[in-house]
Amino acid sequence: MTLYQLEVFLAVVQTESFTRAGKLLHTSQSGVSHTIADLEKELGIVLFTRNRNRVNLTNIGELILPHCFEIIGQKGKINQVVAEAKGIKSGILRIGAFSSFVANMIPDIFQVFRSRYPGIELQLFEGSYAEVNSWIRTRTVDLGFLTVPSDGLDFIRLISDPYVAVLPVNHPLGNQAVISMEQLTHEPFLSLKSGCETLVMRAFQDNRLSLNKRLEVVGNSTIISMVEAGIGVSIVPSMILPAVPANIMIKPLTPSINRVIGLAVPSLEVISPAIAAFIKETQILLT
User: Fold this and answer.
1) CA dist., res. 152 & res. 157, Å (int)
2) Distance, CA of 96 to CA of 12 (rounded, Å)
3) 63-77, 80-94, 255-269: segment of lowest average pLDDT
4) Of 226, 242, 251, 263, which one has the greatest count of Cβ atoms within 10 A?
5) Residue 145 · residue 98 · CB < 8 Å
6) Between residues 50 and 265, which one has the greater pLDDT?
7) Helix, strand, or coil here: 194?
């Protein structure tokens, strides 16, 4: 078993395709296929099931995956430590983040980091809260931006993102400076089903209030469009609002609801110099 075979294995897992894995590794599809076949033959197991559109990990492949991430991750850390000792900052950092943070914060963070560490390549993995959490745990990414501390991960708090009420233009509550949660209990409510709705539901439960939930919406832009169309009202994190507000009214809430956004890693005790540098530069920029 070689490190290259494991790198090919992880590339196939990441892209769910031998062809896309080949492009990622700058090799041919047949080269990827032969490498995986050799690895499967050596191990005496089947790692992937193949169909026309994608490849999927077998059960045994799922069990092997975390160990492969650990081995390749250790290789990267060795390279980074050696590069640091030579006074050269180089390597690859894989970073996970959810969509609203990607749109609003990642460009500035990446720009600042690349200006100071041009030899380190940054790779962005965009997904839901649950996906980013899973990627950190399985070492698919080196670190990730999350909204709440997660058991088994070390979490560095960065910023607080307040939730706001969004209402259609000309809504009867629009003349108020602040909207209370109680005032929204009888309104047709649109729930943003992306993970950030958990804090909203909990806040209403803690205040012994109920919601007249009308729809659950996955996309950030979709829920804004539905409010704009007068279908209902919602409560969303400020960060998801468009830079140029749509034809809606935005009001602060009482009592307030805030999501804490921070960086999560498997363990702060074993991070590489590149990860430590990324955390430091992000903290300087955001806090």
Assistant:
1) 16
2) 18
3) 80-94
4) 263
5) yes
6) 265
7) coil
Question: How far is the C-alpha of 170 from the C-alpha of 181, rounded, in Å?
Answer: 19
Q: Above 80 in pLDDT, residue 104?
A: yes
Q: Which two tokens stand for residue 89?
A: 């900052």
Which pLDDT value is given to residue 184?
A: 94
Structure tokens given for 152: 């088994």
Name the DSSP class of 119. T
- Cα distance between residue 104 and residue 158, in whole Å: 14
Average pLDDT over the chain, rounded to an integer: 88
> Please, are residues 195 and 147 in contact by the beta-carbon 8 Å criterion?
yes
In which residue are the tokens 């896309």 written? 20
What is the rounded distance in angstroms from the CA atom of residue 73 to the CA atom of residue 141?
Answer: 9
Q: Are 89 and 120 in contact (CB under 8 A)?
A: yes
Q: Cα–Cα distance between 130 and 147 in angstroms, integer? A: 11
pLDDT bin (cut points 50, 70, 90) of residue 215 is confident
Whole-model pTM: value is 0.70
